[in-house]
Amino acid sequence: MLASVTAELLARIQFAFTISFHIIFPAFSIGLASYLAVLNALWLRTGERTYLTLFDYWKKIFAVAFGMGVVSGIVMSYQFGTNWAVFSDRTGPILGPLMAYEVLSAFFLEAGFLGIMLFGRERVGDGLHMFATAMVAVGTLGSAFWILSVNSWMQTPVGYAIAENGQFVPEDWWAIVFNPSFPYRLVHMVLAAYLTTAFVVGGVGALHLLRDRTAQEARRMFSMAMWMAVLVTPLQILAGDFHGLNTLEHQPVKVMAMEGHFESHPDGAPLILFGIPNAAEQRVDYALEIPKLSSLILKHDLNAPLNGLDTVPPEDHPPVGIVFWSFRIMVGLGFAMLGVGGWSLLQRLRGRLYEDGALHRVAVAMAPAGFVAVLAGWITTEVGRQPWTVQGLLRTAHSLSPIDTPAVAVSLIAFVVVYFLIFGAGTVYILRMMNRPAATPGTELREGPLRSAGHAPAAHPGDSPAE
Amino acid sequence: MPFDLSFIWAGLIAFAVLTYVILDGFDLGIGILFPFAASDSQRDQMMNSVAPVWDGNETWLILGGGGLFAVFPLAYAVVMPALYMPIILMLLALIFRGVSFEYRWRSTHKPLWDAAFFGGSAVAAICQGIALGALVQGIEIENRAYVGGWFDWLTPFSLTTGAALAVGYALLGATWLIAKTEGSLQARMRRYAFGLGIATLVLIGAVSLWTPFQDAVYFERWFSFPGSLWTMLVPAVMLLLTLSFFSGLRNHHDFQPFLSALGMFVASFIGIGISFYPMMVPPALTIEEAAAPDSSLAFTLVGAAVLVPLILAYTAYAYWVFRGKVNPDEGYH
């Protein structure tokens, strides 16, 4: 058993672990940064205090989530080198510049203006503060742009040549940046981040509505979030469908794994709703399937032939079970979100959006749905492209650093312990902040003009006695 | 000698690393000094003096790593495995200190995150110093891969550079606080800065005298006539900075000690540059060999030429917005 634990396996687990933790924070902060910019703009335009209160409320949550995103992100930028040195050497000339652009155009922008957004309203005035807030939002989106371009190039590499020393060298930067899967992945991920945030905000709003239906801030955030659920979820399902068709074109093996198609279907492939993929026997056990529907979805023709994994050499198969299940989790959650959005629209039209306790309870339960869907989606696409780090060109097994198994094992254990400790604590703090209603005096801007007269300027009013 | 893209990039990466050391140096130094504050309110002031800017400071470290990956992928691919342990340890330490900025205010166990802030800052500083020392010693490469063991970085020399950097960062932190605070905290930092200044100079001296014996090339570079006429400028400048540092401290100047300490870091950095050139990774990987193809260098240079000046401008603006002494009652928490 232990003999089968290789440095490669441990390095893969380490990468999967650290990237999975990391993606949670950007998925939230991309959406939240945009939400904050919207809230601040609405406050400046309407002068309605609810927006300012909400801005200050979510701003502090953003600060904690953003901090966790930064520190878990630094790890990523070094892990390529420590654990995947061969990959780094080979792909550096192409992927490195894209990441450098991410740092230069996005990370600095976010970090540079974050301080002003968090602490600077009184010092720079409303106009520049709004600008800083918008820059933070633009920075988070810019970062998504570049890093998704990097990821997409690994999935659909184009615009390169291979040099004598084995390096991929750039031939056409435009083709590299806008590689075939990039536009789809970018749209799908940005919408996912927006939906993730919408469901968190909606869940928090619903929580406070369950306690007090008249709370103005809770009503406002719940309403805004449910509009997002109504409008963005259908777009996201559509974007996901396009992304799937793009994957079928460029990475058909991944789609075979997602669909559980071990066998080829020359005259129309069934859609397997559920079943248990059995890789040893190369079949799906207990499959519950709808005939020909998969061909209809993927080829828009009931009788279109679809190849299965039996056309692919076994050494090029991804782990089917993981991809099959994670894909279903993602899709299932997407439709659950659609359901919540539709339900909220119905109640809104009937004037009962703030009255329906059942809807609020479901919204609270769905608050983490975006995170789960994002993780499931990334697992689908990343596990689905195995055994390659650069599709069809560089195998994961050939990407590894020349490192000893014990070194990776020790660092893996350290990462696991530290991440659970640190990000566990961070999650607790964030939940605690969310559990506090948006309008308590402690969460107001201390130097705000409408500060209640009796509110003593204690050193840190955020720390209420409840803690 | 060709002055081509790879040399421009070597200069830019050196600039990014130096900027990182200068900016994050004082902010890690504040973490190192955290347990030596007199009170909780002093610690609040210390942290608030960097809270609006630490994120941006740390981004230069990402640029150092990301930039190396972009323009010197081979150097990145051999240095990271060679420095596996100190790099991973540094990353973990930076997690602890980075989250403390927010967690500290959110937790019922403030001392716990105070300790995390100190421990994370100290370990990160030491690891960075160790990594530097290990790089100066040289990294064994064959066939585009690191071939040494996973404890090669651990030597008396690298431990000394680790200590030197941590003490130096603490000096930067203390002098930053002299500039940014008043009253009892400032007086305390003046006292610390005096001792830390002496300790830093002693350690810089030790490392400087030790370095030429790490590699015959370094020795040649520093002590062979007539090149040594130029290299001796570095210690001469160091001497002037030392005088400026102590006179600034004695005359209660706000910024002179900080700027002098920064100058010492710049001079030391130039000293290391003199030793390294034209190697990217001593003893045998040159800047040209490590560089990515010209198309990568040119593509990235366009972005850097436009964006780095912008970044410097808005970073300077952020510092300007938060200029002046820290108000003990300010903060959004």
Question: What is the distance, rounded to the nearest whole angstrom, between the alpha carbons of the first and last residues of chain B?
Answer: 56 Å
The structural class of chain A is mainly alpha
The shape of chain A, in one word, is globular
Helicity of chain A, as a percent range: 55-70%
**Assembly of the depicted chains:** heterodimer
Major beta sheet summary of chain B: 2 strands, antiparallel
What is the share of helical residues of chain B? over 70%
Give a count of the beta strands of chain B, DSSP E runs of length 2 or more.
4
Low-confidence stretches of chain B: none
Order of helices and strands of chain B: HHHHHHEEHHHHHHEEHH
Strand order of the largest sheet of chain B: 1-2
How many alpha or pi helices of chain A? 13
Number of strands of chain A: 6
Give the biggest beta sheet of chain A.
Answer: 2 strands, antiparallel
Describe the structure.
The complex is a heterodimer of chains A (467) and B (333). Chain A is mainly alpha-helical and 467 residues long. Chain A is built from 13 helices and six strands. In chain A, β3 and β4 form a beta hairpin. Chain A is globular. The two termini of chain A are 47 Å apart. Residues 442-467 of chain A have low confidence and may be disordered. Chain B is mainly α and 333 residues long. In chain B, 76% of the residues lie in helices and 3% in strands. Chain B has helices at 5-33, 40-48, 54-71, 73-82, 84-106, 110-137, 156-180, 183-210, 216-223, 227-231, 233-250, 256-276, 287-290, 294-321, and strands spanning 141-142, 145-146, 279-281, 285-286. Chain B is globular. Chains A and B meet through α2, α3 and α13 of A and α3, α4, α5, β2 and α14 of B.
